[in-house]
Amino acid sequence: MIKRTKAERAFDASNLLLMLVLIFITVYPLYYTLVCSFSDARGLLRHVGPLALPLRPYTLNGYRLTLRNTSIISGFRNSVFYVLFGTVLSLILTAMGAFVVSRKHFKLRKIMMGGIVFTMFFNGGIIPLFFVVQKTGIYDTFWVMFLPWLVSSYNLIILRTFFTGLPDSLEEAAMLDGANDLDVLVRIYIPLSRPALAVLALYYGVGIWNSWYPALVFMRTRSLYPLQMILREVLILETDAAADNNAMMVEESFNRELVKYCTVVVSTVPILVIYPFLQKYFVKGVMIGAIKG
Amino acid sequence: MHPLCGHALCMAAHFGLEEGVCVRNGKAESYRVNIKRYPWLYAIAFPVVLFYVVYCYLPMYGVIIAFQNYSPARGILGSKWVGLKHFISFFTGRYFFRLVSNTLLINVKLLMFGFPLPIIFAILLNEIHSSGFRRITQTITYMPHFVSSVVVCGLLKDFTKSGGLLTSIAMAFGGENVNLLSKAKLFQPLFVGMNIWQQFGWDSIIFFAAMSSIDPVLYEATRVDGANRFQQVLHVTLPGLFPTIVVILILRIGRLMSLGWEQIVLLYSPLVYETSDVISTYVYRRGLLEFEYSFGTAVGLFNSLINIILLISANALSRMVNETSLW
Questions:
Q1: How many CB atoms lie within 10 A of CB B128?
Q2: Which residue, A109, A164, A218, B299, could crosslink A144 as a Cys pair with Cβ 3.0–4.6 Å?
Q3: pLDDT of residue A287
Q4: ipTM value of the model?
Protein backbone atom coordinates (compact mmCIF):
# COMPACT_ATOMS: atom_id res chain seq x y z
CA MET A 1 0.00 0.00 0.00
CA ILE A 2 0.93 3.61 -0.40
CA LYS A 3 2.64 5.29 2.51
CA ARG A 4 0.45 7.77 4.29
CA THR A 5 1.48 11.40 4.12
CA LYS A 6 1.74 13.65 7.15
CA ALA A 7 -1.50 15.39 6.27
CA GLU A 8 -3.28 12.08 6.02
CA ARG A 9 -1.99 10.97 9.37
CA ALA A 10 -3.18 14.22 10.89
CA PHE A 11 -6.57 13.66 9.31
CA ASP A 12 -6.76 10.09 10.58
CA ALA A 13 -5.94 11.20 14.08
CA SER A 14 -8.51 13.97 14.16
CA ASN A 15 -11.08 11.74 12.53
CA LEU A 16 -10.56 9.11 15.19
CA LEU A 17 -10.85 11.77 17.84
CA LEU A 18 -14.09 13.05 16.33
CA MET A 19 -15.54 9.54 16.33
CA LEU A 20 -14.57 9.11 19.96
CA VAL A 21 -16.31 12.38 20.76
CA LEU A 22 -19.44 11.19 18.94
CA ILE A 23 -19.36 7.90 20.82
CA PHE A 24 -19.01 9.84 24.05
CA ILE A 25 -21.96 12.09 23.24
CA THR A 26 -24.06 9.06 22.37
CA VAL A 27 -23.15 7.02 25.40
CA TYR A 28 -22.73 9.59 28.14
CA PRO A 29 -26.41 10.44 28.74
CA LEU A 30 -27.11 6.73 29.14
CA TYR A 31 -24.03 6.19 31.28
CA TYR A 32 -24.93 9.18 33.45
CA THR A 33 -28.36 7.67 34.05
CA LEU A 34 -26.79 4.38 35.02
CA VAL A 35 -24.37 6.09 37.40
CA CYS A 36 -27.14 8.13 39.00
CA SER A 37 -29.23 5.02 39.55
CA PHE A 38 -26.63 3.69 42.02
CA SER A 39 -26.06 7.01 43.75
CA ASP A 40 -27.01 8.26 47.16
CA ALA A 41 -30.46 9.89 46.96
CA ARG A 42 -29.55 12.87 49.15
CA GLY A 43 -26.36 13.54 47.27
CA LEU A 44 -28.24 13.35 44.00
CA LEU A 45 -30.66 16.07 45.07
CA ARG A 46 -27.78 18.41 45.89
CA HIS A 47 -25.44 17.47 43.07
CA VAL A 48 -25.08 19.71 40.02
CA GLY A 49 -23.02 18.73 36.99
CA PRO A 50 -21.70 15.65 35.25
CA LEU A 51 -20.74 12.50 37.10
CA ALA A 52 -18.09 9.92 36.34
CA LEU A 53 -18.93 7.51 39.16
CA PRO A 54 -21.97 7.07 41.43
CA LEU A 55 -22.17 9.35 44.45
CA ARG A 56 -21.22 7.61 47.66
CA PRO A 57 -22.56 5.76 49.52
CA TYR A 58 -23.50 3.49 46.63
CA THR A 59 -26.98 2.11 46.99
CA LEU A 60 -29.41 -0.31 45.42
CA ASN A 61 -32.21 1.39 47.27
CA GLY A 62 -33.58 2.94 44.08
CA TYR A 63 -33.91 -0.44 42.44
CA ARG A 64 -35.56 -1.87 45.51
CA LEU A 65 -38.18 0.90 45.39
CA THR A 66 -38.57 0.69 41.63
CA LEU A 67 -39.19 -3.02 41.64
CA ARG A 68 -41.64 -2.66 44.50
CA ASN A 69 -43.72 -0.40 42.28
CA THR A 70 -46.48 -2.72 41.16
CA SER A 71 -47.41 -0.52 38.19
CA ILE A 72 -44.00 -0.96 36.64
CA ILE A 73 -44.19 -4.71 37.02
CA SER A 74 -47.70 -4.91 35.61
CA GLY A 75 -46.84 -2.45 32.84
CA PHE A 76 -43.88 -4.59 31.92
CA ARG A 77 -46.03 -7.70 31.89
CA ASN A 78 -48.72 -5.99 29.80
CA SER A 79 -46.15 -4.71 27.31
CA VAL A 80 -44.61 -8.14 26.87
CA PHE A 81 -48.08 -9.54 26.24
CA TYR A 82 -48.95 -6.80 23.73
CA VAL A 83 -45.67 -7.29 21.92
CA LEU A 84 -46.00 -11.06 21.66
CA PHE A 85 -49.66 -11.12 20.76
CA GLY A 86 -49.60 -8.09 18.49
CA THR A 87 -46.46 -9.14 16.66
CA VAL A 88 -47.77 -12.60 15.91
CA LEU A 89 -51.10 -11.27 14.65
CA SER A 90 -49.38 -8.55 12.62
CA LEU A 91 -47.04 -11.04 11.02
CA ILE A 92 -49.84 -13.41 10.08
CA LEU A 93 -51.97 -10.72 8.55
CA THR A 94 -49.05 -9.02 6.81
CA ALA A 95 -47.96 -12.33 5.30
CA MET A 96 -51.50 -13.01 4.09
CA GLY A 97 -51.79 -9.57 2.55
CA ALA A 98 -48.36 -9.67 0.96
CA PHE A 99 -49.12 -13.13 -0.40
CA VAL A 100 -52.35 -12.29 -2.18
CA VAL A 101 -51.00 -9.12 -3.76
CA SER A 102 -48.01 -11.08 -5.03
CA ARG A 103 -50.19 -13.68 -6.80
CA LYS A 104 -50.45 -12.90 -10.48
CA HIS A 105 -53.69 -14.85 -10.92
CA PHE A 106 -55.47 -12.88 -8.19
CA LYS A 107 -57.88 -10.63 -10.00
CA LEU A 108 -58.32 -8.15 -7.16
CA ARG A 109 -54.58 -7.72 -6.95
CA LYS A 110 -54.26 -4.33 -8.59
CA ILE A 111 -57.19 -2.78 -6.79
CA MET A 112 -56.05 -4.15 -3.47
CA MET A 113 -52.50 -2.97 -3.98
CA GLY A 114 -53.79 0.47 -4.88
CA GLY A 115 -55.91 0.51 -1.75
CA ILE A 116 -52.95 -0.49 0.40
CA VAL A 117 -50.57 2.04 -1.12
CA PHE A 118 -53.13 4.80 -0.75
CA THR A 119 -53.20 4.35 3.03
CA MET A 120 -49.52 5.27 3.13
CA PHE A 121 -50.34 8.71 1.79
CA PHE A 122 -53.58 9.52 3.48
CA ASN A 123 -55.29 8.61 6.70
CA GLY A 124 -58.39 9.84 8.44
CA GLY A 125 -56.53 11.18 11.43
CA ILE A 126 -56.83 10.50 15.09
CA ILE A 127 -60.35 11.77 15.75
CA PRO A 128 -62.21 9.66 13.17
CA LEU A 129 -60.07 6.73 14.31
CA PHE A 130 -61.22 7.42 17.84
CA PHE A 131 -64.83 6.88 16.80
CA VAL A 132 -64.02 3.77 14.81
CA VAL A 133 -62.23 2.37 17.84
CA GLN A 134 -65.30 3.06 19.95
CA LYS A 135 -67.71 1.63 17.41
CA THR A 136 -65.73 -1.56 16.96
CA GLY A 137 -65.85 -2.17 20.68
CA ILE A 138 -62.12 -2.20 21.36
CA TYR A 139 -62.05 1.08 23.32
CA ASP A 140 -60.39 0.45 26.68
CA THR A 141 -59.50 -3.16 25.89
CA PHE A 142 -56.07 -4.64 25.27
CA TRP A 143 -56.86 -4.87 21.53
CA VAL A 144 -56.49 -1.15 21.15
CA MET A 145 -52.73 -1.41 21.63
CA PHE A 146 -52.19 -3.08 18.28
CA LEU A 147 -55.38 -3.84 16.36
CA PRO A 148 -55.80 -0.43 14.64
CA TRP A 149 -52.17 -0.64 13.43
CA LEU A 150 -52.04 -4.35 12.80
CA VAL A 151 -50.72 -4.18 9.25
CA SER A 152 -48.14 -1.62 8.25
CA SER A 153 -48.45 -1.08 4.52
CA TYR A 154 -44.76 -0.40 4.37
CA ASN A 155 -43.93 -3.78 5.91
CA LEU A 156 -46.45 -5.48 3.69
CA ILE A 157 -44.75 -4.11 0.60
CA ILE A 158 -41.32 -5.18 1.84
CA LEU A 159 -42.64 -8.69 2.28
CA ARG A 160 -44.38 -8.64 -1.07
CA THR A 161 -41.08 -7.71 -2.69
CA PHE A 162 -39.49 -10.63 -0.91
CA PHE A 163 -42.25 -12.99 -1.99
CA THR A 164 -41.99 -11.96 -5.64
CA GLY A 165 -38.28 -12.74 -5.48
CA LEU A 166 -38.86 -16.37 -4.50
CA PRO A 167 -38.25 -18.93 -7.24
CA ASP A 168 -41.38 -19.93 -9.17
CA SER A 169 -40.36 -23.53 -9.74
CA LEU A 170 -41.26 -24.80 -6.26
CA GLU A 171 -44.78 -23.49 -6.28
CA GLU A 172 -45.33 -24.57 -9.86
CA ALA A 173 -44.37 -28.10 -8.86
CA ALA A 174 -46.64 -27.90 -5.83
CA MET A 175 -49.52 -26.56 -7.90
CA LEU A 176 -49.10 -29.45 -10.33
CA ASP A 177 -49.38 -31.83 -7.40
CA GLY A 178 -52.73 -30.26 -6.61
CA ALA A 179 -51.68 -27.80 -3.89
CA ASN A 180 -53.97 -24.80 -3.43
CA ASP A 181 -52.94 -21.25 -2.63
CA LEU A 182 -53.13 -21.82 1.12
CA ASP A 183 -50.68 -24.71 0.82
CA VAL A 184 -48.35 -22.56 -1.23
CA LEU A 185 -48.43 -19.81 1.41
CA VAL A 186 -48.05 -22.04 4.44
CA ARG A 187 -45.70 -24.67 3.09
CA ILE A 188 -43.56 -22.75 0.62
CA TYR A 189 -43.68 -19.00 1.05
CA ILE A 190 -43.61 -18.76 4.83
CA PRO A 191 -40.80 -21.28 5.40
CA LEU A 192 -38.74 -19.67 2.65
CA SER A 193 -39.15 -16.15 3.98
CA ARG A 194 -38.13 -16.72 7.58
CA PRO A 195 -35.34 -14.11 7.44
CA ALA A 196 -37.70 -11.44 6.09
CA LEU A 197 -40.37 -12.39 8.62
CA ALA A 198 -37.80 -12.12 11.41
CA VAL A 199 -36.99 -8.58 10.33
CA LEU A 200 -40.64 -7.61 10.24
CA ALA A 201 -41.25 -9.24 13.62
CA LEU A 202 -38.53 -7.06 15.07
CA TYR A 203 -40.01 -3.94 13.51
CA TYR A 204 -43.50 -4.72 14.75
CA GLY A 205 -42.25 -5.79 18.15
CA VAL A 206 -40.16 -2.70 18.79
CA GLY A 207 -42.99 -0.53 17.50
CA ILE A 208 -45.50 -1.99 19.93
CA TRP A 209 -43.03 -2.01 22.79
CA ASN A 210 -42.35 1.71 22.37
CA SER A 211 -45.88 2.86 21.69
CA TRP A 212 -47.88 4.62 24.35
CA TYR A 213 -50.30 7.04 22.76
CA PRO A 214 -52.90 4.38 21.88
CA ALA A 215 -53.14 3.87 25.62
CA LEU A 216 -53.31 7.60 26.26
CA VAL A 217 -56.13 8.16 23.81
CA PHE A 218 -58.01 4.88 23.80
CA MET A 219 -57.55 3.44 27.30
CA ARG A 220 -58.83 4.32 30.72
CA THR A 221 -58.17 1.27 32.85
CA ARG A 222 -54.81 1.68 34.51
CA SER A 223 -54.22 -2.02 34.96
CA LEU A 224 -54.11 -2.36 31.16
CA TYR A 225 -51.46 0.32 30.67
CA PRO A 226 -48.30 -0.68 28.81
CA LEU A 227 -44.93 0.01 30.38
CA GLN A 228 -44.40 3.19 28.37
CA MET A 229 -47.52 4.78 29.88
CA ILE A 230 -46.21 4.04 33.36
CA LEU A 231 -42.83 5.45 32.36
CA ARG A 232 -44.60 8.55 31.15
CA GLU A 233 -46.13 8.97 34.59
CA VAL A 234 -42.82 8.51 36.35
CA LEU A 235 -40.59 10.47 33.97
CA ILE A 236 -42.77 13.09 32.33
CA LEU A 237 -45.73 13.81 34.57
CA GLU A 238 -43.70 13.01 37.67
CA THR A 239 -46.76 11.86 39.49
CA ASP A 240 -46.39 9.30 42.20
CA ALA A 241 -46.72 6.15 40.20
CA ALA A 242 -47.04 4.25 43.43
CA ALA A 243 -49.54 6.52 45.11
CA ASP A 244 -51.64 3.47 45.84
CA ASN A 245 -48.88 2.18 48.05
CA ASN A 246 -49.03 4.29 51.22
CA ALA A 247 -45.99 2.88 52.92
CA MET A 248 -43.88 4.13 50.05
CA MET A 249 -45.25 7.66 49.87
CA VAL A 250 -42.79 9.31 52.24
CA GLU A 251 -39.77 7.54 50.89
CA GLU A 252 -41.02 8.08 47.36
CA SER A 253 -41.03 11.88 47.36
CA PHE A 254 -37.53 11.90 48.79
CA ASN A 255 -36.18 9.26 46.45
CA ARG A 256 -38.07 10.39 43.39
CA GLU A 257 -35.00 11.42 41.39
CA LEU A 258 -33.23 8.20 42.16
CA VAL A 259 -36.28 6.11 41.29
CA LYS A 260 -36.55 7.94 37.99
CA TYR A 261 -33.08 6.90 36.95
CA CYS A 262 -33.61 3.35 38.13
CA THR A 263 -36.87 3.17 36.19
CA VAL A 264 -35.09 4.23 33.02
CA VAL A 265 -32.41 1.61 33.55
CA VAL A 266 -34.87 -1.17 34.35
CA SER A 267 -37.02 -0.41 31.31
CA THR A 268 -34.25 0.23 28.82
CA VAL A 269 -31.53 -2.26 29.65
CA PRO A 270 -33.47 -5.32 28.41
CA ILE A 271 -33.74 -3.86 24.91
CA LEU A 272 -30.20 -2.49 24.82
CA VAL A 273 -28.81 -5.84 25.91
CA ILE A 274 -30.74 -7.82 23.32
CA TYR A 275 -30.25 -5.29 20.55
CA PRO A 276 -26.60 -5.92 19.55
CA PHE A 277 -27.47 -9.56 18.90
CA LEU A 278 -30.36 -8.58 16.67
CA GLN A 279 -28.59 -5.64 15.05
CA LYS A 280 -27.82 -7.46 11.84
CA TYR A 281 -31.52 -8.20 11.31
CA PHE A 282 -32.54 -4.62 11.85
CA VAL A 283 -29.83 -3.43 9.52
CA LYS A 284 -30.91 -5.97 6.95
CA GLY A 285 -34.43 -4.60 7.24
CA VAL A 286 -33.25 -1.10 6.45
CA MET A 287 -31.43 -2.49 3.44
CA ILE A 288 -34.35 -4.36 1.91
CA GLY A 289 -36.64 -1.49 2.74
CA ALA A 290 -34.63 1.44 1.64
CA ILE A 291 -31.98 0.55 -0.89
CA LYS A 292 -34.45 -0.94 -3.28
CA GLY A 293 -36.57 2.16 -2.99
CA MET B 1 -45.53 4.19 14.29
CA HIS B 2 -43.00 2.85 11.90
CA PRO B 3 -39.42 4.06 12.09
CA LEU B 4 -39.06 4.17 8.36
CA CYS B 5 -42.48 5.26 7.24
CA GLY B 6 -40.84 8.04 5.25
CA HIS B 7 -39.76 5.58 2.67
CA ALA B 8 -43.36 4.97 1.76
CA LEU B 9 -43.03 7.21 -1.22
CA CYS B 10 -40.21 5.36 -2.88
CA MET B 11 -41.72 2.01 -2.07
CA ALA B 12 -44.95 3.02 -3.66
CA ALA B 13 -43.32 4.58 -6.65
CA HIS B 14 -41.17 1.59 -7.35
CA PHE B 15 -43.22 -1.40 -6.36
CA GLY B 16 -46.66 0.00 -6.62
CA LEU B 17 -48.83 -0.71 -9.53
CA GLU B 18 -46.50 -1.48 -12.32
CA GLU B 19 -47.52 -5.00 -13.27
CA GLY B 20 -50.13 -6.28 -15.66
CA VAL B 21 -53.68 -7.56 -15.30
CA CYS B 22 -54.70 -11.16 -14.91
CA VAL B 23 -54.98 -12.62 -18.31
CA ARG B 24 -55.41 -16.31 -18.90
CA ASN B 25 -55.43 -17.81 -22.35
CA GLY B 26 -55.48 -14.40 -23.89
CA LYS B 27 -58.64 -13.09 -22.29
CA ALA B 28 -59.45 -11.69 -18.87
CA GLU B 29 -61.40 -13.85 -16.47
CA SER B 30 -64.53 -12.57 -14.82
CA TYR B 31 -64.41 -12.22 -11.05
CA ARG B 32 -66.84 -15.11 -10.68
CA VAL B 33 -64.60 -17.48 -12.54
CA ASN B 34 -61.57 -16.17 -10.68
CA ILE B 35 -63.20 -16.72 -7.27
CA LYS B 36 -64.35 -20.20 -8.24
CA ARG B 37 -60.96 -21.15 -9.48
CA TYR B 38 -58.94 -19.72 -6.57
CA PRO B 39 -61.27 -19.62 -3.56
CA TRP B 40 -58.36 -19.77 -1.13
CA LEU B 41 -56.91 -16.54 -2.42
CA TYR B 42 -60.11 -14.72 -1.60
CA ALA B 43 -60.34 -16.41 1.79
CA ILE B 44 -56.81 -15.32 2.60
CA ALA B 45 -57.41 -11.81 1.33
CA PHE B 46 -60.61 -11.36 3.33
CA PRO B 47 -59.22 -10.62 6.82
CA VAL B 48 -56.64 -8.27 5.35
CA VAL B 49 -59.27 -6.38 3.39
CA LEU B 50 -61.45 -6.29 6.48
CA PHE B 51 -58.62 -4.75 8.48
CA TYR B 52 -57.97 -2.08 5.86
CA VAL B 53 -61.63 -1.25 5.46
CA VAL B 54 -62.30 -0.94 9.18
CA TYR B 55 -59.18 0.73 10.48
CA CYS B 56 -57.94 2.66 7.45
CA TYR B 57 -60.91 3.44 5.24
CA LEU B 58 -63.65 3.92 7.83
CA PRO B 59 -61.62 6.71 9.48
CA MET B 60 -61.22 8.26 6.03
CA TYR B 61 -64.98 8.20 5.64
CA GLY B 62 -65.19 9.69 9.13
CA VAL B 63 -63.27 12.70 7.88
CA ILE B 64 -66.55 14.14 6.62
CA ILE B 65 -67.33 15.20 10.18
CA ALA B 66 -64.92 18.05 9.42
CA PHE B 67 -67.79 19.57 7.43
CA GLN B 68 -70.38 19.04 10.16
CA ASN B 69 -71.13 20.02 13.70
CA TYR B 70 -70.66 16.45 14.70
CA SER B 71 -72.13 15.11 17.87
CA PRO B 72 -71.55 11.47 18.74
CA ALA B 73 -75.17 11.16 19.90
CA ARG B 74 -76.55 12.09 16.48
CA GLY B 75 -73.96 10.24 14.42
CA ILE B 76 -72.60 11.21 11.03
CA LEU B 77 -75.94 10.93 9.27
CA GLY B 78 -77.84 12.98 11.83
CA SER B 79 -75.33 15.78 12.43
CA LYS B 80 -75.77 19.20 10.93
CA TRP B 81 -73.72 20.15 7.87
CA VAL B 82 -71.81 23.39 8.20
CA GLY B 83 -69.65 23.38 5.06
CA LEU B 84 -66.25 24.98 5.50
CA LYS B 85 -67.06 26.71 8.77
CA HIS B 86 -64.37 24.92 10.79
CA PHE B 87 -61.72 25.45 8.16
CA ILE B 88 -62.49 29.14 8.00
CA SER B 89 -62.43 29.49 11.74
CA PHE B 90 -59.05 27.74 11.78
CA PHE B 91 -57.59 29.90 9.00
CA THR B 92 -58.80 33.08 10.61
CA GLY B 93 -58.09 31.94 14.15
CA ARG B 94 -55.34 33.53 16.19
CA TYR B 95 -53.18 30.40 16.25
CA PHE B 96 -53.15 29.60 12.54
CA PHE B 97 -49.92 31.36 11.71
CA ARG B 98 -48.14 30.17 14.83
CA LEU B 99 -49.11 26.52 14.26
CA VAL B 100 -48.13 26.43 10.61
CA SER B 101 -44.86 28.24 11.18
CA ASN B 102 -43.90 26.05 14.15
CA THR B 103 -44.68 22.90 12.21
CA LEU B 104 -42.59 24.10 9.30
CA LEU B 105 -39.77 25.55 11.37
CA ILE B 106 -39.23 22.43 13.46
CA ASN B 107 -39.26 20.27 10.36
CA VAL B 108 -36.96 22.54 8.41
CA LYS B 109 -34.51 22.52 11.31
CA LEU B 110 -34.70 18.75 11.56
CA LEU B 111 -33.97 18.58 7.86
CA MET B 112 -31.18 21.18 7.85
CA PHE B 113 -29.25 19.61 10.72
CA GLY B 114 -30.55 16.07 10.84
CA PHE B 115 -30.07 15.36 7.15
CA PRO B 116 -26.40 16.17 6.45
CA LEU B 117 -25.09 14.76 9.72
CA PRO B 118 -25.64 11.05 9.02
CA ILE B 119 -24.00 11.49 5.60
CA ILE B 120 -20.93 13.21 7.02
CA PHE B 121 -20.78 10.66 9.81
CA ALA B 122 -20.99 7.75 7.38
CA ILE B 123 -18.25 9.17 5.14
CA LEU B 124 -15.92 9.93 8.02
CA LEU B 125 -16.46 6.59 9.73
CA ASN B 126 -15.77 4.87 6.43
CA GLU B 127 -12.35 6.52 6.43
CA ILE B 128 -11.42 4.79 9.70
CA HIS B 129 -9.03 1.94 8.94
CA SER B 130 -9.89 -0.48 11.71
CA SER B 131 -12.98 -2.44 10.76
CA GLY B 132 -13.46 -3.50 14.39
CA PHE B 133 -13.62 0.12 15.50
CA ARG B 134 -16.02 0.89 12.67
CA ARG B 135 -18.37 -1.89 13.74
CA ILE B 136 -18.30 -0.95 17.39
CA THR B 137 -18.97 2.69 16.54
CA GLN B 138 -21.92 1.65 14.44
CA THR B 139 -23.36 -0.56 17.15
CA ILE B 140 -23.04 2.22 19.70
CA THR B 141 -24.45 4.99 17.56
CA TYR B 142 -27.47 2.92 16.50
CA MET B 143 -28.30 2.27 20.13
CA PRO B 144 -30.31 5.40 21.00
CA HIS B 145 -32.73 4.48 18.22
CA PHE B 146 -33.91 1.63 20.43
CA VAL B 147 -34.50 3.70 23.51
CA SER B 148 -38.20 4.49 23.63
CA SER B 149 -39.28 8.06 22.98
CA VAL B 150 -40.83 8.29 26.44
CA VAL B 151 -37.47 7.52 28.00
CA VAL B 152 -35.54 9.85 25.70
CA CYS B 153 -37.97 12.69 26.37
CA GLY B 154 -37.93 11.88 30.08
CA LEU B 155 -34.16 12.07 30.15
CA LEU B 156 -34.15 15.34 28.24
CA LYS B 157 -36.63 16.75 30.73
CA ASP B 158 -34.48 15.61 33.59
CA PHE B 159 -31.25 16.94 32.09
CA THR B 160 -32.74 20.35 31.35
CA LYS B 161 -34.41 21.05 34.68
CA SER B 162 -32.64 23.56 36.88
CA GLY B 163 -29.57 21.80 38.21
CA GLY B 164 -29.83 19.11 35.53
CA LEU B 165 -26.95 17.75 33.49
CA LEU B 166 -27.40 19.95 30.43
CA THR B 167 -28.30 22.97 32.49
CA SER B 168 -25.11 22.62 34.47
CA ILE B 169 -23.10 22.35 31.26
CA ALA B 170 -24.87 25.45 29.95
CA MET B 171 -24.03 27.18 33.24
CA ALA B 172 -20.35 26.45 32.69
CA PHE B 173 -20.71 28.49 29.50
CA GLY B 174 -22.45 31.34 31.27
CA GLY B 175 -26.04 30.16 31.14
CA GLU B 176 -28.56 30.60 33.93
CA ASN B 177 -29.64 27.87 36.29
CA VAL B 178 -33.21 27.59 35.02
CA ASN B 179 -35.39 24.97 33.45
CA LEU B 180 -34.21 25.11 29.84
CA LEU B 181 -37.34 23.49 28.41
CA SER B 182 -39.47 26.29 29.79
CA LYS B 183 -37.57 28.82 27.70
CA ALA B 184 -39.50 29.39 24.50
CA LYS B 185 -36.44 30.12 22.42
CA LEU B 186 -34.68 26.94 23.53
CA PHE B 187 -37.49 24.49 22.87
CA GLN B 188 -36.83 23.96 19.19
CA PRO B 189 -33.05 23.61 19.44
CA LEU B 190 -33.44 21.11 22.28
CA PHE B 191 -36.10 19.16 20.41
CA VAL B 192 -34.03 19.03 17.24
CA GLY B 193 -30.88 18.14 19.17
CA MET B 194 -32.66 15.30 20.93
CA ASN B 195 -33.94 13.92 17.64
CA ILE B 196 -30.50 14.07 16.08
CA TRP B 197 -28.94 12.39 19.10
CA GLN B 198 -31.43 9.58 18.82
CA GLN B 199 -31.39 9.12 15.05
CA PHE B 200 -28.13 10.17 13.42
CA GLY B 201 -26.50 6.75 13.75
CA TRP B 202 -29.53 4.86 12.58
CA ASP B 203 -30.11 7.25 9.68
CA SER B 204 -26.56 6.65 8.49
CA ILE B 205 -27.13 2.91 7.86
CA ILE B 206 -28.48 3.51 4.42
CA PHE B 207 -25.42 5.54 3.46
CA PHE B 208 -23.11 2.81 4.70
CA ALA B 209 -25.03 0.42 2.52
CA ALA B 210 -24.72 2.72 -0.46
CA MET B 211 -20.98 3.13 0.12
CA SER B 212 -20.42 -0.59 0.33
CA SER B 213 -21.90 -0.92 -3.14
CA ILE B 214 -19.38 1.48 -4.70
CA ASP B 215 -17.00 -0.46 -6.91
CA PRO B 216 -13.52 -0.60 -5.27
CA VAL B 217 -12.01 -0.46 -8.75
CA LEU B 218 -13.00 3.20 -8.86
CA TYR B 219 -10.88 3.95 -5.79
CA GLU B 220 -8.03 1.98 -7.28
CA ALA B 221 -8.23 3.95 -10.51
CA THR B 222 -8.23 7.35 -8.82
CA ARG B 223 -5.33 6.26 -6.63
CA VAL B 224 -3.34 5.32 -9.72
CA ASP B 225 -4.16 8.77 -11.07
CA GLY B 226 -2.61 10.22 -7.93
CA ALA B 227 -5.70 11.26 -6.00
CA ASN B 228 -5.30 11.67 -2.27
CA ARG B 229 -7.96 10.51 0.17
CA PHE B 230 -9.78 13.79 0.23
CA GLN B 231 -9.99 13.77 -3.56
CA GLN B 232 -11.20 10.18 -3.48
CA VAL B 233 -14.02 11.12 -1.17
CA LEU B 234 -14.85 14.05 -3.38
CA HIS B 235 -14.71 12.24 -6.70
CA VAL B 236 -15.71 8.68 -5.87
CA THR B 237 -17.55 8.40 -2.55
CA LEU B 238 -19.75 11.47 -2.91
CA PRO B 239 -20.84 10.77 -6.49
CA GLY B 240 -21.48 7.16 -5.42
CA LEU B 241 -23.70 8.34 -2.58
CA PHE B 242 -25.43 10.98 -4.62
CA PRO B 243 -28.44 8.94 -5.81
CA THR B 244 -29.19 7.78 -2.27
CA ILE B 245 -28.74 11.29 -0.91
CA VAL B 246 -31.17 12.71 -3.45
CA VAL B 247 -33.80 10.05 -2.80
CA ILE B 248 -33.62 10.47 0.98
CA LEU B 249 -33.67 14.25 0.68
CA ILE B 250 -36.75 14.20 -1.52
CA LEU B 251 -38.48 11.83 0.85
CA ARG B 252 -37.77 14.11 3.75
CA ILE B 253 -39.02 17.15 1.87
CA GLY B 254 -42.18 15.17 1.24
CA ARG B 255 -42.76 14.95 4.97
CA LEU B 256 -42.05 18.55 5.85
CA MET B 257 -45.47 19.15 7.32
CA SER B 258 -45.98 15.81 8.97
CA LEU B 259 -44.66 15.86 12.46
CA GLY B 260 -45.74 13.35 15.04
CA TRP B 261 -47.22 14.87 18.14
CA GLU B 262 -46.06 12.15 20.48
CA GLN B 263 -42.64 13.55 21.34
CA ILE B 264 -43.84 17.13 21.48
CA VAL B 265 -46.73 16.25 23.77
CA LEU B 266 -44.19 14.69 26.11
CA LEU B 267 -41.97 17.76 26.19
CA TYR B 268 -44.00 20.90 25.83
CA SER B 269 -45.94 22.94 28.33
CA PRO B 270 -48.23 25.96 27.98
CA LEU B 271 -45.20 28.10 28.84
CA VAL B 272 -43.61 27.31 25.50
CA TYR B 273 -46.63 26.85 23.20
CA GLU B 274 -45.37 29.91 21.36
CA THR B 275 -42.56 27.86 19.81
CA SER B 276 -43.63 24.27 20.41
CA ASP B 277 -47.29 23.99 19.54
CA VAL B 278 -47.66 22.33 16.14
CA ILE B 279 -50.69 21.37 14.08
CA SER B 280 -50.84 17.78 15.30
CA THR B 281 -50.59 18.72 18.99
CA TYR B 282 -53.29 21.32 18.45
CA VAL B 283 -55.54 18.71 16.86
CA TYR B 284 -54.98 16.47 19.85
CA ARG B 285 -55.76 19.19 22.38
CA ARG B 286 -58.74 20.78 20.70
CA GLY B 287 -60.17 17.62 19.21
CA LEU B 288 -59.67 15.03 21.89
CA LEU B 289 -59.13 16.91 25.11
CA GLU B 290 -61.70 19.65 24.46
CA PHE B 291 -64.09 17.41 22.50
CA GLU B 292 -64.29 19.72 19.47
CA TYR B 293 -64.36 16.71 17.20
CA SER B 294 -65.32 18.47 13.99
CA PHE B 295 -62.92 21.34 14.39
CA GLY B 296 -60.04 18.99 15.25
CA THR B 297 -60.81 16.80 12.27
CA ALA B 298 -60.87 19.83 9.99
CA VAL B 299 -57.45 20.97 11.18
CA GLY B 300 -56.08 17.46 10.78
CA LEU B 301 -57.53 17.22 7.29
CA PHE B 302 -55.90 20.49 6.34
CA ASN B 303 -52.57 19.09 7.50
CA SER B 304 -53.07 15.85 5.57
CA LEU B 305 -53.91 17.73 2.40
CA ILE B 306 -50.74 19.81 2.64
CA ASN B 307 -48.82 16.58 3.18
CA ILE B 308 -50.29 15.02 0.09
CA ILE B 309 -49.45 18.06 -1.98
CA LEU B 310 -45.88 17.98 -0.68
CA LEU B 311 -45.61 14.25 -1.33
CA ILE B 312 -46.94 14.52 -4.84
CA SER B 313 -44.59 17.36 -5.69
CA ALA B 314 -41.70 15.52 -4.10
CA ASN B 315 -42.63 12.46 -6.09
CA ALA B 316 -42.78 14.46 -9.31
CA LEU B 317 -39.44 16.01 -8.48
CA SER B 318 -38.04 12.56 -7.78
CA ARG B 319 -39.20 11.23 -11.13
CA MET B 320 -37.75 14.22 -12.90
CA VAL B 321 -34.39 14.00 -11.16
CA ASN B 322 -34.21 10.23 -11.47
CA GLU B 323 -34.94 10.32 -15.16
CA THR B 324 -32.70 13.13 -16.10
CA SER B 325 -29.55 12.49 -14.17
CA LEU B 326 -29.42 9.58 -11.79
CA TRP B 327 -30.70 6.27 -13.02
A1: 16
A2: A218
A3: 67
A4: 0.87
